[in-house]
Amino acid sequence: MSETAPATIPGDASCLIVDDDQPFRTRLGRAMEKRGFEVTLAEGVLEAKSAIRNKAPAFAVVDLRLEDGDGIDVVNFLHEERADSRAVMLTGYGNITTAVAAVKAGAIDYLAKPADADDVQKALLQREGAMPEPPENPMSADRVRWEHIQRVYELCGHNVSETARRLGMHRRTLQRILAKRAPQ
């Protein structure tokens, strides 16, 4: 995560970071603190809801898929407790359906993991209605395809035959793709 000078942070700089990946959560928390945010860390939905009940933050960075539930539930709960909060959704599986669900829940942006602190800060502090800047290093078409295949494979319970059927590809072709490392 790159380190930059703090941008203009509003008076209430409370920020909740919810992610079940402990090393990522800790790194992002430290980086956001260096940028002037008052960070609270949570590992899952229950811990996040407890932190929100205690003090609803002005900002939140929430992973979409958590071990004990769905990050969209956290964003919905946050907006029930504090309507003016600004939340950014993170995910390792970027797709249109989940992006739309995150925005409907009240997330102001949707970032693919691993998002760095600069991207998160830009998303949290962007003006209302402003279009986000295009990413510096967008995923390659091969990477997007690989991510989509991995997502469908996971949704099919790691069943190769069912995944191949849903993707409209030969099972052996899918097996070869799954055996390879992720493209850059």
TrEMBL record:
- What InterPro entries does the database record attribute to this sequence? ActR_PrrA_rreg, CheY-like_superfamily, HTH_Fis, Sig_transdc_resp-reg_receiver, WalR-like
What are the GO MF terms of this UniProt record? phosphorelay response regulator activity; transcription cis-regulatory region binding
**Cellular component terms, GO, for this chain's entry?**
cytosol; protein-DNA complex
| PTM annotation (4-aspartylphosphate): residues | D63
Q: Which domain of life is it from?
A: Bacteria
Output the GO biological process annotations, alphabetical, semicolon-separated.
regulation of DNA-templated transcription
- Asked if the record carries the keyword Translocase, the reply is no
Keywords for the protein's UniProt record, in alphabetical order: DNA-binding, Phosphoprotein, Transcription, Transcription regulation, Two-component regulatory system
Q: Which SUPFAM superfamilies match?
A: CheY-like (SSF52172)
**UniProt cross-references to Gene3D superfamilies, sorted A to Z:** 3.40.50.2300, Homeodomain-like
Signal peptide as annotated in the record: none
Q: Per the record's keyword annotation, is DNA-binding included, yes or no?
A: yes
Response regulatory domain ranges (all copies)? 14-128
Q: Which NCBIfam families match?
A: ActR_PrrA_rreg
PANTHER family linked: REGULATOR OF RPOS, TWO-COMPONENT RESPONSE REGULATOR ORR33
Name of the featured protein: ActR/PrrA/RegA family redox response regulator transcription factor
